[in-house]
Amino acid sequence: MSGILRVIAFDLPERRPSLKSKIYDYAKPVAQTLESLTIDKCVVLGESMGGMVAIQMCLSFPEKVTGLILSNSIYDRRMRSFGLNMSTFATAVHFLAFLPIGDRRRRGLLEWVGKNRGFIFDPSEGNAELIDYLLAKRKDMRASAFADRFIAVANTDFSRSLDKIGVPTLIIRGEEDRFVGENVANYLSRKIKDSKLALIKGAGHCSPLTAHARTNEVIKEWLFEKGFCPKN
User: What gap in Å lies between CA 139 and CA 11, rounded to an integer?
Assistant: First the structure.
């Protein structure tokens, strides 16, 4: 992707937990970073909770956003896909991986979770790479930072604001994603006016990582279609 566009990857800040935290608290530093880089406008892409940050960018800093890409994104705190099913059970089981059970058992447990589509894992070949990423991230980030992000999501609801998004939008969903259900992507597609829904076959919640080639191809095609970059 970086071969055809300037790509900037943004690490969300690690904040101390606050009961008043909202997604705006994560979108504002993104806007400030763009300002510091003298970037007037750009296409914003967000994955999962990052999608909520991207939506907030459109609503609070519309002058900065020319296009929006939401990948396996949510728009409020409700998880509509949980219920009496194997995916929900596997999601609960995945928490055992954060106990002191040793790396070999931890990895085996998360592989089983992926086969049963628990939490953000999926049965694709790329699930091993996702496990590597999560285990590395677990060591780098404090639990308190995760807690603040959960609070920010819980305090934010865009369900009545999606129709205010005024830029072309690509909505990506991994077909195997059970963490964010099919109905969430369909709702986003209905509410955002100039939107396109694209499904990534065989991929789950983290399709940009577990199926990066297919996901990048979908993104590039949409960028060409909307005139954000020239076709070579």
Answer: 16
Looking at the 3D structure of the chain, how many domains does it have? Answer: 2
Angle at CA of residue 82, ends 81 and 88, nearest 5°: 125
- In a domain, residue 90? The reply is yes
95 found inside a domain: yes
Q: Could you read off the pLDDT of 183-193 as tens digits, one per residue?
A: 999 999 999 99
- In angstroms, the CA 201 to CA 192 distance is 23
- For residues 124 and 187, membership in a common domain is answered with no
Percent pLDDT > 90 in the chain is: 71
Residue 51 and residue 23 in contact, taking contact as beta carbons nearer than 8 Å:
no
Please tell me the distance from the alpha carbon of residue 90 to that of residue 112, in angstroms, as a whole number.
8
Mean predicted lDDT score pLDDT of the chain? 91
* DSSP of 34-56: HHHTT---EEEEEETHHHHHHHH
| Claim to verify: residue 149 and residue 219 sit in the same structural domain | yes
Parent domain of 168:
24-78+145-225
pLDDT in tens, 56-88: 999 999 999 999 999 999 999 876 666 778 989
Closest CA to 180 of 163, 204, 196: 204
Taking alpha carbons only, the member of 176, 178, 181 closest to residue 124 is 176
Mean pLDDT along residues 2-10: 83
